[in-house]
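input
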Amino acid sequence: MADAAPATAPSYPLTAPAALEPPAEWTGLRQNRPIAPAPGDDLISRLMLGTDNDGEPMSRAGLVATGQALLLAGHETTAGFIAMMTAHLLADRTRWERLLADRSLIRAAVEEVLRFDPNGSGFGMLRYAHEDVELPGALVPEGTTVVCGMAAANRDERAWDQPDTMDLSRTPNPHLAFGAGPHSCLGQPLARTELQAVLGVLLRRLPTLALAVEPGQLRRHEGMLTTPLRELPVTW
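output
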């Protein structure tokens, strides 16, 4: 996995205006989507037709931001990590065989892959210091933009025994794949449930699942917050 061939990074302007500009498919959502007399079964319909305590509907900007957050944080990250998790478990056949022999390890295995490679070990989470922050050996001045490297934290030798080894029975496992404190991921219980369910189904229905290529041939998407695999060729 570490030697996967780099993919071509997407070409888009890395500027604040570009980051804040919603994609075209979202900008025309209110104008182009037919409004039914009653909410539909999908979440976006309910958001479009819902109101707050004062009877006001969600603003266009709020609707676009919520839709983007649901698509990226609520779907894309988990979908990408399913393939990443499967690839890591198949890269060393003994891991897959261990889970086949003991399904009680599924929960711990999901947590360990999250620690070992938190959704592709992307660039990291950007944070802005609104005041001076004292850290051991350094001061982060007010106004500084910092990158929180969750992947680096999850391999800290001061916190983990053999951090570069994937131990499917590692416990406790207080990794930072979902962040920590007030900025921790709100959807982590759902993500954990989905990952455990998918892994259980794969082990039950496809016990002979195997990589169709060498692990080093797997390619990641680059230039994004997360770096999921471009594809995962398998056989069974």
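quick obs: The chain has one domain: 16-118+152-235.
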